[in-house]
Amino acid sequence: MPGAAIGGVRLLLRLEGVAMGTVALVAYAQHGLGWSAFAWLFLLPDAAFLGYLAGARIGATAYDATHSTLGPLALLMAGMLGGLPTATALALVWFAHVGFDRALGYGLKYASGFTATHLGRIGRRDPW
Prior knowledge:
Layout: H1 7-31, H2 35-42, H3 56-67, H4 70-81, H5 85-103, E1 109-110, E2 113-117, E3 120-121
Antiparallel strand pairs: 1-2, 2-3
């Protein structure tokens, strides 16, 4: 797929996802709100899938807004600088989610369709 990472670059990006998710989990264990809160909040970024009901372009924009590292970085900064432990914990859950998705190969979406990502095409591969 044009525009997608391949080979060693793709592997490196997925390993970054593993590292991001692992660091977020370890940090959450130290600064978190408990594991039941983690479990409930972990899938929250996936609510952006609802954007696909309005079409691929809006869906991709909504998905990318909740699966980029910019949001959790801003929330983490606000939590740390503002002395807001709940914001810090939420940012760590968000980072864990993004890292887990990237490790599995779910990258940022292109407007051409849900399966087109910066880490390559996802989903069932047509054998033909």
